[in-house]
Amino acid sequence: MRANHSTRVLVVEDDPDIASALALELDHGGYEARIERDGPGALLSASEWPAELVVLDLGLPSIDGIEVCRRLRRHSSIPILVLTARDTVEDRVRGLDAGADDYLTKPFSLDELMARVRSTLRRARLREEGERLEYAGLLLDARARTVDYQGRSIELTPREFDLLEFLMRHPGQAMSRDSILAGVWEHDFLGGSNVIDVYIRYLRRKLHEHGAPPLIQTVRAVGYAFRDSE
Ligand code: CA
After folding, report:
1. Residue 178 C-alpha to ligand 1 middle, in angstroms?
2. pLDDT, tens digit, 9 for 90 and up, residues 65-92
3. 56 C-alpha vs ligand 1 centroid, how far in Å?
4. 12 C-alpha to center of ligand 1: Å?
5. pTM of the model
6. Alpha carbon 178 to chain centroid distance?
7. Do 8-128 and 130-226 come out as alike in CATH topology?
8. CA 9 / ligand 1 centre spacing (Å)
9. Distances from the Cα of 185 to the Cαs of 168, 191, 196, in angstroms?
10. How far apart, in whole angstroms, are the C-alpha atoms of residue 155 and residue 160?
11. Cα–ligand 1 centroid distance for 123 (angstroms)
């Protein structure tokens, strides 16, 4: 299976032979690869050349790979596949702690690398899809924290957003007030569970104002359910 040609992969590797072998293999696999030889170059490329994956060698001159990983993570959730020369538990933990998604120990075969590239991208795409909840024309993007109904943006307060997200993550299920409180208000909660009813009312009104069908149903003696009315 060939990847889409626009799938960009940033390769950060100071060894020129390994770097060009990786770039060639990625190109052959249908990816668009760019090579950076050090940390500063990697950070610059990551900001001006949006890629879908970073293949990052840990042993780099000047800024090491762990630090590059950490700095990338400050602004980006881009999947990072780390290459490490030492297969020690400590190295793996350091890489994963710094925000890497997966790692591959040198020496590796190019087939192995490509399999790992595909699986890392696949997992990242699934994760991204999990961040977008859609139901009956209502679209919630959990990462961007936006909601729209049929393309019309709906402005919600942070609490309204959290409540809607919680309900949309459990479509069709009757959620008790207790579980809503626990899921949305957590510990910083004062007052009775009727605060939920108040927020439900705000949410319903905003959804209604934007033309959405009534999607938040009252479940008598229990709480609320996110579903189409029958
Ligand atoms: Ca190296």
Report:
1. 53
2. 999 999 999 988 899 999 988 777 787 7
3. 9
4. 9
5. 0.65
6. 28
7. no
8. 18
9. 16, 11, 9
10. 9
11. 26
Domain boundaries of the chain, sorted by first residue: 8-128, 130-226
Name, in order, each residue with C-beta under 8 angstroms of 175's C-beta and a sequence gap of 6 or more: 166, 167, 183, 219, 222, 223, 224, 225, 226
Whole-number Å distance, alpha carbon 121 to ligand 1 midpoint, is: 23
- Please provide the CATH number assigned to the domain covering 8-128: 3.40.50.2300
Q: What gap in Å lies between CA 26 and CA 35, rounded to an integer? A: 11
Ligand 1 ion: residues within 5 Å (CB): 14, 57, 59
Mind listing the pLDDT tens digit for each residue in 14-63?
A: 999 999 999 999 999 999 999 999 999 999 999 999 999 999 999 999 89
Architecture of domain 130-226: Orthogonal Bundle (1.10)
